[in-house]
Design a protein that fits this description.
4 strands, extended, disordered N terminus, alpha+beta, two-stranded antiparallel sheet
């Protein structure tokens, strides 16, 4: 028996491939929502101590900068988004389904429904903007001191900035989020209630 070990790259990207890209994006959005709100501003006394000036006007000794603190995530917003994706796109049903017995056409048809519902949720609750304004596949220069959260360098990276390369993807930034308000005591862990027909 001969086994073909060659890598088969699809020549055509069907609805299933589009769904996988969309799902990856939605998972990224869920991770973004897991961040906690920014901490409150320090009190006036704390501000004085941070600037190094005491109430007597004397300069306090400079302290070394503390390492950034790691915040614990608050899952409520992520669970709320997951619930919306289930309601509008049946995302959880689709992901939990065993697709091995279905044809590519059946999976593609289901992916189209998930895609349409997910698109509706994203457009209704998020205002998105590209991170970079340049056209994709254009040449650009990444200056020294760039934000690595906004720009990810790939390929042959040698030396120090500035770097010149081709823009592969513009990136996405969430500019505004409008999730529905939740009633006090609402159990956000219930993504979708059980349905009982009587």
């Amino acid at each position: 028996m001969m086994i073909d070990w060659t890598l088969q790259i699809p020549a055509v990207f069907d609805v299933g491939h589009i769904f996988l890209v969309t799902l990856g994006f939605l998972l990224l959005v869920v991770l973004l929502l897991k961040r906690t709100p920014s901490e409150p501003l320090p009190a006036e006394d704390d501000k004085k101590s941070e600037t190094g000036a005491s109430e007597t006007g004397e300069e306090a000794p400079a302290e070394t900068a503390a390492p950034p603190s790691i915040k614990s995530s608050q899952p409520d917003s992520a669970l709320q988004l997951l619930s919306l994706l289930q309601k509008e796109a049946r995302l959880i049903d689709f992901v939990q389904e065993d697709l091995t017995g279905f044809s590519d056409e059946e999976v593609g048809a289901a992916a189209r429904v998930v895609h349409q519902g997910a698109k509706k949720v994203v457009e209704k609750h998020f205002t998105l903007a590209p991170v970079r304004s340049e056209e994709e596949e254009s040449t650009l220069t990444v200056d020294k001191g760039f934000n690595p959260q906004e720009v990810q360098l790939t390929g042959n990276i040698a030396g120090e900035a500035p770097f010149t390369g081709m823009l592969v993807h513009k990136g996405w930034r969430v500019e505004h989020i409008t999730l529905p308000q939740m009633v006090e005591g609402h159990d956000v862990t219930i993504i979708a209630p059980a349905e009982v027909e009587v």
